[in-house]
Amino acid sequence: MIGEALTMVRIEIDAEVFAFLQENSEPLVDTPNTVLRRLLLEGTAAVQGGADEQPGRGPGALMPFLERGWIKPDEALHHVKKRTGQTFHAKVTPDGWIRIADGREFALPSPALKAQVGTEINGWGQYTVLSAGKPLQFLREQLRLAQLREQQEGA
User: Fold this and answer.
1) Is-contact 92 86, C-beta < 8 A?
2) Whole-number Å distance between alpha carbons of 22 and 19
3) Taking the model in full, what pTM does it have?
4) 27, 122 Cβ separation under 8 angstroms
5) Distance between CA atoms of 26 and 110, rounded to whole angstroms?
6) Which candidate, 110, 107, 102, 105, places its Cα nearest to that of 135?
7) What are phi and psi of 53, to 5 degrees?
8) What one-character DSSP code corresponds to residue 93?
9) How many CA atoms lie within 13 A of 87 on its CB side?
């Protein structure tokens, strides 16, 4: 796919579909296309806005990091609210989901962190991997670069 131009096509969607895309997006990160690509093409269609644990669920968004050994099952994530100093903790499950303190599990970081803090928030940018001292967004960017290198080497 490297070096190939992607053809973009315009589509019309109704307000309900647009609302669904917004619920499943990472604020200030995703476009409607990236949400659809993630939900339809990357095997995460079973996840709808951080639904609680489901039987037969697919892997969570952190699974690529587990597969590469960059994080481990039960890895601690945390977020500190800047204004109040309040700290929120979560753990990574063996299948790449995020388990928050009340036991609910989410496939994506933003819905998990939103459930903890009560407002829209970018979980990729605000959750820190405690052992690494880096935000999930840093790992996400490293993964993107690694995948690009692998694609270039395979071409």
Assistant:
1) no
2) 5
3) 0.64
4) yes
5) 6
6) 110
7) -50, 135
8) -
9) 7
Per-residue pLDDT of the chain (155 residues; tens, 9 = 90+): 444 555 677 888 888 888 887 777 776 666 787 777 766 765 443 334 444 445 567 899 999 999 999 999 999 999 999 888 999 999 999 999 999 998 999 999 999 999 999 889 999 999 999 998 999 999 999 999 998 888 888 76
Q: Give the span between the Cα atoms of 32 and 12, in whole angstroms.
A: 12
- Rounded to a whole number of angstroms, the CA Rg of the chain reads 16
- The token duo for 68 is 């590469």
In three-state secondary structure terms, 51 is coil
Structure tokens at 74: 């039960």
Q: Which of 30, 29, 26, 32 is nearest to 9 (CA)?
A: 32
